[in-house]
Amino acid sequence: MTALSHNIAVIVIGAQLCMIYAAGGLFKAQGSPWFEGYAIYNPISTAQFGTWPELTALVTAWGPMVALATILSVLVQVAFPLLLLRRGTRIFGLSVILAFHISIAVLMGLPWFSLAMVALDAVFVRDVTYVQISDALRGSWRRARGEGDRGLQELTPAQEQQEREQEQQEPEPEVAQEQAEPATVGGSPVASRP
Fold it and tell me: b/e string for 61-91 if b means 16 or more Cβ within 10 A?
């Protein structure tokens, strides 16, 4: 697959997700249960979708939290395309959507739908973020096993690039040696002042 076809596929997937979330949010905003803030309570309290009655009772025990979660889910879905434009809002939007889908998986018993949507939402996460997460997990795993940072480490592409940039910024050895030679006046060395 060429880079162009890959990029086109990513753009198409992203556009479809934006349309799904925006249309779903606008459709929900028209209904009074979503507007009034109790729509989340209804499906998870039914026998068909309420897979964990004890957990449902715990989550829905405080009314203001139910209202906040209901209204926040609608607002984030409607604004999802705009939230993707800046890094800070993208992180916020993807975090809310992730929590939304985890809640659907656990509280409504729809894990495969939620897993599919989370996998599709992963299109909006930058490659650098995946590398950072991988490095953090690898470091945590090594520390948990007691290995620490000893031994040879396999560098990630980002770390290799960073090392190359640092090597390019260091002065060449010849220049450093020339600067280290003592100053002379008429062939005799001059003492430097401290």
Answer: eeeeebbebbbebbebbbebeebbeeeeebe
Q: Report how far residue 151's alpha carbon sits from residue 173's, in angstroms, rounded to the nearest whole number.
A: 28
Query: In sequence order, what are the residues at sequence separation of 6 or more whose Cβ sits closer than 8 angstroms to the Cβ of residue 109?
Result: 49, 51, 52
**Selected residue with higher pLDDT from 147 and 63:** 63
Residue count (the chain): 194
Rounded to an integer, what is the distance from CA 173 to the centroid of its chain?
42
Question: What span, in angstroms and rounded, lies between the C-alpha atoms of 125 and 114?
Answer: 17
Give the pTM: 0.67
Burial grade of 117 (CB within 10 A; 0-12, 13-18, 19 or more): buried
Give the residue extent of every domain in the chain.
3-127
Bridge partners of 174? Answer: none
| Winning range, highest mean pLDDT, from 27-36, 46-55, 175-184 | 27-36
**Residue 49 confidence class, pLDDT cut points 50, 70, 90:** confident
Nearest-angstrom CA–CA distance, 47 and 70 = 20
